[in-house]
């Protein structure tokens, strides 16, 4: 099953699915950023702004560790690390930290994506959407169903299972479409200040509290009153 | 707020910088003399014969750590640019607006206004601090003229007129500048601004500090994704960092104050400089180090940013100005707010 056969979406498929061009694929991680804050997503993927703070540095160290080994193999379980994946239907590409392949009774290997996350489980759906995007990529590339995966949270040292149900799939597809629209429109949304900003790695670039329009004229008049 | 990160200045001739895990290793004669974690660095400035591994260059580019090579005397040689290229759309907007003369004039006004008002403040402070020791009348005269220049700038001038005001302002200011130096006047004086080469010690100091300033502003612009080369007051000229020079105007008086205080507080002596037979003046190694340390210290001082109204280190001001400029280009701000020191 993981023997990837070269194939294209056939034109005879009953559902006309629009496929993205390889050049237009967006990063899987952008979905997560989009759900967190649309401006953050635009700053990173449109403006290519990135600030390394303690969190992202830690995340990188963790990832570097995950990414060192390539493949592990046991009788019932094979593990691949840092697996390049993409989906032309969603228009996303990226890498999966870990894909486990579980051997089933019928002899087939069932792919099972696992994503490592620093910190603790989040209340919102962002991590689940990202994992689901990986599952959809694997489904498309390996032509099989991927019903389930898991998130591993570093702080809790615990695995949380994620079922890729219809509503999660729908949300993932919608988010991917929304990111494509944002990047095509190429306009960075204005900032809004709320409590998310405090944990945002781009806070110092985004300056959500700095007043916008119509302020500079007044500032200059005030500053040059001699 | 973004943290203030350090600048690593490497002045030891023959030193070699390499990437060692997550750190920069400074090797001198094969021995590792210093190791600095990369994530604590904002930029690296190499003076003279200092080498650098391509892997370190790559990491610097990737993480927006500015890496510049200057001659021993501080003349700009080269900069390393990484694979992260910022937002092409933002840069296109920057270029498009540079063709718009009204927009250019608006930016130029803001930059020159910042410079003129801040220059005036430098003179005002000197008058306040050393009014008894200096020719107060000459200084006061310049203050008045700079005040008039600032008012003139509010009249919506053309680019050529703005440049005229800028030139007059600089002349007025530097004509009073010599009076700000109150110690060892026989060796430290400035009769006129000279750059190529600097003809006296003060000019030599000013040129060096301006180079450091330009490096920082250029790095800040690149980090934000702007092209330091395409300016508004400073029109395109190959090899010139036009936008960096534009944003530098408001900071020049701060650099000037640093020079004045180094001299007045006797941190530099007359034999810290070498006068060549041709008349040009160069700095000794020790003088250069003294200036670098003073510059670094100044950048670590905290102040409230007058527009953003948040406390931050002066080193971060450069970055903030670059960000504010990008916002202006994206129409999130109705103008460019220069830093005006009160
Ligand atoms: S600081 Fe706030 S508004 Fe700005 S990108 Fe981050 S979350 Fe979004």
From TrEMBL, chain A:
DUF83 domain location: 29-207
InterPro entries the record matches: Cas4_exonuclease, CRISPR-assoc_prot_Cas4, Dna2/Cas4_DUF83, PDDEXK-like_dom_sf
Cofactor(s) needed for function: iron-sulfur cluster; [4Fe-4S] cluster; Mg(2+); Mn(2+)
Domain of life: Bacteria
Details of cofactor binding: Mg(2+) or Mn(2+) required for ssDNA cleavage activity.
Keywords: Antiviral defense, Exonuclease, Hydrolase, Iron, Iron-sulfur, Manganese, Metal-binding, Nuclease
Annotated Pfam families: Cas_Cas4
Record-level GO BP terms: defense response to virus
EC number(s) given by UniProt: 3.1.12.1
Gene3D superfamilies: 3.90.320.10
Gene Ontology MF: a single term: iron-sulfur cluster binding
Keyword 4Fe-4S: no
Family, similarity comment: Belongs to the CRISPR-associated exonuclease Cas4 family.
Function: CRISPR (clustered regularly interspaced short palindromic repeat) is an adaptive immune system that provides protection against mobile genetic elements (viruses, transposable elements and conjugative plasmids). CRISPR clusters contain sequences complementary to antecedent mobile elements and target invading nucleic acids. CRISPR clusters are transcribed and processed into CRISPR RNA (crRNA).
Full protein name: CRISPR-associated exonuclease Cas4
Gene: cas4
UniProtKB/TrEMBL annotation, chain B:
Sequence positions that bind Mn(2+): 166, 234, 249
InterPro entries per the UniProt record, alphabetical: Cas1 (IPR050646), CRISPR-assoc_Cas1 (IPR002729), CRISPR-assoc_Cas1_C (IPR042206), CRISPR-assoc_Cas1_DVULG (IPR019856), CRISPR-assoc_Cas1_N (IPR042211)
GO molecular function, one term: DNA binding
EC number(s) from the headed UniProt entry: 3.1.-.-
Cofactor(s) this protein cannot do without: Mg(2+); Mn(2+)
BP GO terms, sorted: defense response to virus; maintenance of CRISPR repeat elements
Pfam families, alphabetized: Cas_Cas1 (PF01867)
Keywords, ordered alphabetically: Antiviral defense, DNA-binding, Endonuclease, Hydrolase, Magnesium, Manganese, Metal-binding, Nuclease
Assembly mode: Homodimer, forms a heterotetramer with a Cas2 homodimer.
Family label: Belongs to the CRISPR-associated endonuclease Cas1 family.
Known role: CRISPR (clustered regularly interspaced short palindromic repeat), is an adaptive immune system that provides protection against mobile genetic elements (viruses, transposable elements and conjugative plasmids). CRISPR clusters contain spacers, sequences complementary to antecedent mobile elements, and target invading nucleic acids. CRISPR clusters are transcribed and processed into CRISPR RNA (crRNA). Acts as a dsDNA endonuclease. Involved in the integration of spacer DNA into the CRISPR cassette.
Protein name (Swiss-Prot/TrEMBL): CRISPR-associated endonuclease Cas1
Species this chain originates from: Desulfobulbus oligotrophicus
């Amino acid at each position: 099953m993981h023997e990837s056969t070269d194939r294209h979406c056939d034109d005879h498929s009953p559902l006309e699915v629009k496929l993205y061009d390889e050049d237009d694929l967006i990063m899987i991680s952008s979905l997560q950023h989009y759900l967190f804050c649309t401006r953050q997503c635009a700053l990173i993927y449109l403006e290519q702004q990135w600030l390394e703070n303690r969190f992202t540095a830690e995340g990188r160290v963790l990832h570097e560790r995950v990414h060192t080994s390539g493949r592990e193999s046991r009788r019932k379980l094979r593990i691949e690390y840092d697996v390049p994946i993409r989906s032309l239907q969603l228009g996303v590409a990226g890498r999966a930290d870990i894909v486990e392949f579980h051997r089933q009774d019928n002899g087939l290997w069932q792919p099972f994506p696992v994503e490592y996350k620093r910190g603790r489980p989040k209340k919102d759906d962002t991590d689940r959407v990202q994992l689901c995007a990986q599952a959809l990529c694997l489904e498309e590339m390996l032509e099989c169903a991927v019903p389930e995966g898991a998130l591993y949270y570093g702080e809790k040292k615990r695995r949380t299972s994620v079922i890729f149900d219809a509503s999660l799939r729908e949300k993932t597809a919608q988010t991917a479409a929304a990111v494509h629209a944002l990047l095509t429109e190429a306009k960075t949304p204005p900032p809004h200040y709320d409590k998310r900003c405090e944990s945002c790695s781009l806070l110092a670039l985004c300056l959500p509290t700095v007043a916008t329009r119509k302020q500079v004229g007044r500032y200059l008049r005030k500053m040059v009153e001699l | 707020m973004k943290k203030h990160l350090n600048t690593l200045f490497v002045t030891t001739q023959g030193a070699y910088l390499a990437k060692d895990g997550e750190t920069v290793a400074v090797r001198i004669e094969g021995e590792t003399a210093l190791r600095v974690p990369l994530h604590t660095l904002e930029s690296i400035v190499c003076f003279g014969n200092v080498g650098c591994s391509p892997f370190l260059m790559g990491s610097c580019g990737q993480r927006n750590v500015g890496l510049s090579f200057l001659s021993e005397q501080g003349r700009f040689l080269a900069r390393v640019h990484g694979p992260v290229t910022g937002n092409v759309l933002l840069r296109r907007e920057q270029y498009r607006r540079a063709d718009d003369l009204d927009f250019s004039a608006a930016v130029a006004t803001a930059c020159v206004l910042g410079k003129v008002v801040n220059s005036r403040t430098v003179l005002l402070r000197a008058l306040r601090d050393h009014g008894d020791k200096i020719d107060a009348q000459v200084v006061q005269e310049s203050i008045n003229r700079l005040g008039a220049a600032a008012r003139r700038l509010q009249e919506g001038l053309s680019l050529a007129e703005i440049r005229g005001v800028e030139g007059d302002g600089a002349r007025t200011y530097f004509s009073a500048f010599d009076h700000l130096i109150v110690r060892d006047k026989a060796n430290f004086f400035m009769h006129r601004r000279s750059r190529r080469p600097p003809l006296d010690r003060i000019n030599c100091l000013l040129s060096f500090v301006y180079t450091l300033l330009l490096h920082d502003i250029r790095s800040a612009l690149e980090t934000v994704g702007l092209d330091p080369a395409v300016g508004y007051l400073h029109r395109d000229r190959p090899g010139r960092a036009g936008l960096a020079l534009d944003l530098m105007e408001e900071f020049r008086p701060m650099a000037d104050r640093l020079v004045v205080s180094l001299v007045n507080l006797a941190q530099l002596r007359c034999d810290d400089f070498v006068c060549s037979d041709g008349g040009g003046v160069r700095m000794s190694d020790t003088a250069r180090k003294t200036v670098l340390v003073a510059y670094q210290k100044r950048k670590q001082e905290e102040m409230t940013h007058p527009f953003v109204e948040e406390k931050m280190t002066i080193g971060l001001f450069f970055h903030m100005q670059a960000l504010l400029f990008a916002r202006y280009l994206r129409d999130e701000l109705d103008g460019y707010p220069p830093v005006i020191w009160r």
